[in-house]
């Protein structure tokens, strides 16, 4: 899909794309940090009808909602393209030895060869977590590696 980016001097940036129904959708990212989603009139592409306004926090929430399933889907697609590569999920349970500890303490990649590529916490997705990111009970770790590596990661977070 082609997304056009247009500089709006003094306002911010406008992103535009055509959806599968043929509608032209625009998102105006204002310099102040808020966003406006608009629909362009088919009869006059210079006229935009505002659909809704989002402050920065609302825009982040919407991005998380729309982005979380796409991240998992992209990893699943990747595992189909690379023989021997799998995607898995590991929960941080209350009895996990790594609950409330930094991810780096588990030394996942060193011990298993698998990688933690995201942490899902409630509705938030943190892609590419670093070793200092603290794990919380209820977190779901998205793992990429071999089937054996993912099993080893499950064991690490269950038993230590």
From TrEMBL:
Residues 73-159 form the RCK C-terminal domain. InterPro entries: AAE_transporter, KhtT, KhtT-like_N, RCK_C, RCK_C_sf. One of its GO terms (molecular function) is monoatomic cation transmembrane transporter activity. It comes from the Bacteria. This is Potassium transporter TrkA. GO terms for biological process: potassium ion transport. PROSITE patterns: RCK_C.
